[in-house]
């Protein structure tokens, strides 16, 4: 049988049409696999400083590998979060009527300011700790909502267009202001409220801001500024909540206490805990500068039974630790970096980085980034020996932690927001 050219073309198109749906499915799956990862909360998607982004820069400076730099009004140490093509921050701007606490959003591609909305206007108060700000807790973005927390000054939800949704005030007093960021769990927004007058953990309905549960801490009350972490142990989730004198594990749905561990006079806890190798690593705060490695499998008071070991050399007061592979890495406030075996606590190396540290380190593209308050980021290769890859400097102070998304690093200084990209 002879076929005309038109018939041959039609037959060819029919064959291609059969394979087109499969091609589309493969392409969509591939696209989802290479899609940029968002960084929607403090310390990233899992809350422990890890990113899956690749091809990131590890060398930069003013005018080098800076995709854009945009000014940020006011003062605040909340870390950048990235979702749906926007970078979110909070800030505190001096106003004729007091201090305006604001939520800001910038375009990821250009740095253009897209949202600038006031959440609260407070009196012209001052903070007794010069390292803190009125806008230190990091916001959280989920879907079309952004949640902002300003400690006792207020907690609010906005649409990603900047439309007000709800607000609530969580009463407590802390002499150094606010610090810890909230965490999302299912339909709950959970916040540590550790003040001098009272201390508790509260879960708000993320749709309405109404209190769903509230669990009081044990006395004596004292300030703490840590961010909770949800972990999975066996067949249940645990909310690890660091407070003054004690760290608690709660059922995140109900607030019921599961276990607790004591560290005596430790208070003003700032770092977020880390979970690795079956251990929760808990910085114990000021006066007792240690890290406890705790097995999260007990009940009640586990201080005598479930503390695997204690780290007393180089423990941080402000930066969170980070677990990579079999090791735990940390940097002290005065710039001593430490690498230890996470399972045993054996110190593998220590190295003086120089500078002072408040920001928490991040791990991305096979490298660990330590950022000092002086705007210097030291990049190292993880491993049993210290190996520096680069040291990079930006103008200004950097207390906020680095965020990673869109093949770039996002760094907030005291005056600017940077996108560092190749």
Secondary-structure blueprint of this entry?
Blueprint: H1 5-34, E1 66-71, E2 81-83, E3 86-95, E4 98-107, E5 113-122, E6 140-142, E7 145-149, E8 155-159, E9 164-168, E10 183-185, E11 188-194, E12 199-205, E13 211-216, E14 229-233, E15 236-242, E16 246-250, E17 257-262, E18 274-276, E19 279-283, E20 291-294, E21 300-301, E22 307-311, E23 322-324, E24 327-331, E25 336-341, E26 347-352, E27 362-364, E28 367-371, E29 376-380, E30 388-393, E31 403-405, E32 408-412, E33 416-420
Parallel strand pairs: 17-21
Antiparallel strand pairs: 1-33, 2-3, 3-4, 4-5, 6-7, 7-8, 8-9, 10-11, 11-12, 12-13, 14-15, 15-16, 16-17, 18-19, 19-20, 20-22, 23-24, 24-25, 25-26, 27-28, 28-29, 29-30, 31-32, 32-33
| Terminal-residue CA separation | 59 Å
Low-confidence stretches: 1-34
Second-tier CATH architecture: 7 Propeller
* CATH fold-level name: Methylamine Dehydrogenase, Chain H
Q: Report the CATH superfamily.
A: YVTN repeat-like/Quinoprotein amine dehydrogenase
The main sheet orders its strands as: 14-15-16-17-21
What is the total domain count? 1
The global form is globular
Tally of strands: 33
Quickly list its features.
single chain, 422 residues, mainly beta, Methylamine Dehydrogenase, Chain H, five-stranded mixed beta sheet, four-stranded antiparallel beta sheet, 1 helix, 33 strands, disordered N terminus
């Amino acid at each position: 049988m002879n076929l005309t050219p038109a018939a041959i073309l039609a037959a060819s198109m029919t064959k291609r049409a059969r394979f087109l749906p499969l091609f589309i499915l493969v392409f969509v799956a591939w696209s989802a696999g290479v899609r940029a990862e968002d960084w929607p909360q403090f310390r990233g998607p899992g809350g422990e400083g890890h990113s899956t982004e690749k091809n990131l820069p590890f060398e930069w400076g003013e005018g080098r590998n800076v995709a854009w730099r945009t000014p940020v009004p006011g003062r605040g140490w909340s870390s950048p979060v990235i979702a749906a093509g926007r970078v979110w921050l909070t800030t505190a701007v001096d106003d004729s009527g007091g201090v305006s606490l604001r939520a800001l959003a910038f375009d990821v591609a250009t740095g253009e300011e897209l949202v600038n909305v006031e959440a609260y206007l407070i009196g012209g108060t001052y903070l007794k700790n010069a390292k803190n700000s009125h806008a230190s807790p990091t916001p959280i973005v989920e879907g079309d909502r952004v949640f902002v927390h300003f400690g006792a000054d207020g907690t609010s939800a906005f649409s990603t267009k900047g439309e007000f949704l709800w607000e609530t005030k969580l009463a407590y007093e802390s002499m150094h202001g606010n610090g810890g960021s909230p965490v999302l769990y299912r339909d709950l927004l959970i916040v540590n409220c550790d003040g001098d007058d009272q201390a508790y953990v509260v879960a708000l309905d993320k749709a309405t801001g109404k209190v769903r549960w509230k669990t009081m801490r044990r006395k004596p009350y004292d300030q703490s500024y840590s961010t909770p972490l949800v972990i999975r142990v066996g067949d249940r989730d645990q909310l690890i909540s660091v407070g003054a004198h004690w760290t608690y594990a709660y059922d995140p749905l109900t607030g019921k206490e599961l276990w607790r561990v004591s560290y005596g006079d430790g208070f003003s806890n700032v770092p977020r805990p880390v979970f690795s190798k079956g251990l929760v690593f808990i910085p114990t705060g000021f006066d007792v500068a240690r890290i406890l490695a705790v097995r999260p499998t007990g009940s009640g008071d586990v201080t005598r039974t479930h503390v695997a070991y204690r780290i007393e050399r180089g423990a941080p007061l402000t930066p969170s630790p980070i677990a990579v592979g079999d090791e735990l890495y940390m940097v002290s406030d005065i710039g001593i970096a430490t690498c230890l075996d996470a399972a045993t606590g054996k110190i593998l190396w220590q190295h003086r980085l120089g500078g002072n540290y408040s920001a928490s380190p991040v791990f991305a593209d096979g490298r660990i980034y330590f950022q000092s308050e002086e705007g210097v980021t030291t990049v190292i290769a993880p491993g049993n020996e210290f190996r520096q890859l680069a040291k990079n400097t930006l103008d200004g102070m950097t207390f906020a932690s680095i965020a990673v998304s869109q093949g770039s690093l996002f760094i907030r200084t005291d005056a600017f927001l940077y996108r560092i990209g190749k």
